[in-house]
Design goal:
209 residues, SMHD1 protein, Heat Shock Protein 90, elongated, 22% helix, 6 helices, 15% strand, two-stranded antiparallel ribbon, single chain, alpha+beta, SMCHD1, HATPase_C_sf
């Protein structure tokens, strides 16, 4: 790597956790991406790219695209799909100190790219590990445990009460990824964790599945 013998450096995960003798076996596993940096908070000079590999749950093949919930209730599915996307923002901003900002934009100007639905919030943001976990189909935020890092750490499901901006829209159990692929052909998530200078981007498409 061309490191001088008198030069200090650190090795970190993409979440900027420094690899040490104590946590080596926990953090360094097959397929993990590591950074070799001069310091933990060093700015990256170039964007890095990381491929996410996972085995989809069998429900991906059995239930994806069928939307049994919508059919059994006889409801228009679009509001429920949008509600799932908004629910991610509600959870992400639930612990904000100050204003909670959630914007929904419908983009139809094809000179700027393909038509899209954009949900933008000022929540806590997700690390690369949390984005990876979100990508695992049918792995809900209520069942992520053990080796999985929750996409909303410390999230507590509200008591059954009339729906409000502080309650849990995804109580209906549709799932954010299923909602995304009902509305469109691909998903692009861009997130900056509040405690980090790094911006993480995840791209999923129906073709990839």
């Amino acid at each position: 790597f061309g490191i001088a013998s008198d030069e200090n450096f650190v090795i970190t995960t993409t979440n900027r956790k420094e690899i040490t003798e104590d946590n080596f076996s926990e953090l360094v596993q097959d397929g993990v991406t590591l950074y070799l940096l001069q310091s933990v908070d060093q700015m990256l000079l170039l964007a890095t790219k990381e491929r996410i590999d996972f085995l989809p749950h069998y429900d991906t093949l059995v239930k994806s695209g069928m939307y049994e919930y919508y059919a059994s209730e006889g409801q228009n599915p679009l509001p429920f799909a949008l509600a799932e996307l908004i629910d991610n923002s509600l959870s992400a901003t639930s612990r904000n100190i100050g204003i909670r900002s959630i914007q929904i934009k419908l983009l139809f100007d094809e000179s700027q790219g393909k038509p899209a639905v954009a949900v933008i919030d000022n929540g806590s943001g997700m690390t690369s590990k949390q984005l990876n976990n979100w990508a695992v189909y049918r792995l809900s935020k209520f069942t992520r445990q053990g080796d999985f890092e929750s996409d909303h750490s410390g999230y507590v499901r509200p008591l059954p009460v009339p729906r409000s901006l502080n309650s849990d829209i995804s109580y209906f159990g549709v799932g954010g990824k299923q909602a995304v692929f009902f509305v469109g052909q691909s998903a692009r998530m861009i997130s900056k964790p509040a405690a980090s200078q790094d911006v993480h981007e995840l791209v999923l498409s129906k073709e990839d599945f």
